[in-house]
Amino acid sequence: MARAAGSSEQPNGAQVIRGALRTWPLLLVRLGRRVGIAPALTTVGPFLPLLGLWVWATHVEVWPPIFLPPPSKVLASLWDLLRKGIYPLHVGDSLSRLVAGALISLVLGVAVGVVLGVNRLAGRFFYPLLSFFQSVAEIGWLPLAVIWFGFGFRTILFVIGYTIFFPMVFSTLVGVRTVPPNLVRSALTLGARRHHVIFEILLPGAFPSIVTGIRVGMGYGWRALIAAEMLVGETGLGFMIFDARKFHLTERIILGMLTIGLLWLLTDRLILKPLEAETIERWGLTAKAR
Prior knowledge:
Elements: H1 2-8, H2 13-35, H3 38-44, H4 47-59, H5 71-84, H6 86-118, H7 120-135, H8 142-149, H9 153-177, H10 181-189, H11 194-232, H12 237-244, H13 250-282
Helix pairs in contact: 2-3, 5-13, 6-7, 6-9, 6-11, 6-12, 8-9, 9-11, 10-11, 11-12, 11-13, 12-13
């Protein structure tokens, strides 16, 4: 009887799984703090249960391998594309297009944002126009862009630039208008010229907002890049994914999806997020974490 009562109090499999899922993030944080690698563990940790679920689903064949290949086949596809030199080509082309489009949009967006931020009459006049075109999805421009520029680099560059341009304009405009007017009036009273005010007061004051706009715009631009490459590209990760569907190469499709997510995660965590944090701390808007 005692043994039966004791066995009835033992948790079942479902309870064990639920308990593990609840305590998993806390255990990762504690372990990371103890060994000094908390950021890496908290970044990688949430993906480990998904990886385990993927391995289990392919092992028991919840779906046929043609629909959901195991991780081993995805790694084999990666090795095959690396050996042939195809994978670096697609990754390099996608990154170069994103950087080119981002640089063009950064320059134009900041310039337009400063003009609209300084001239409030122009800002009120053009704001509805900017809002209208921002609401038109970049994919909606692809048919016209193909007619204007043809298939290839210029069309993809146009789509990326269009997508990143508007977040840059609005973030710069907001940043310029948050600069205290007393600073501008004081500089003008002391004899500063207009371009001195812009480059030495307004742009530095708006820089935290501009960096936030870069981070948001790059995320939008990355998705627009992949979509454009799927439809009009001849190389790139989007093209690689879309081309693989013709031959039912699901392992290559998943490889492309994982690469897209990993590249953006690395870009955001290693470049954009630290840049945003350091910029905000530099202007004293928040205290640096100790």
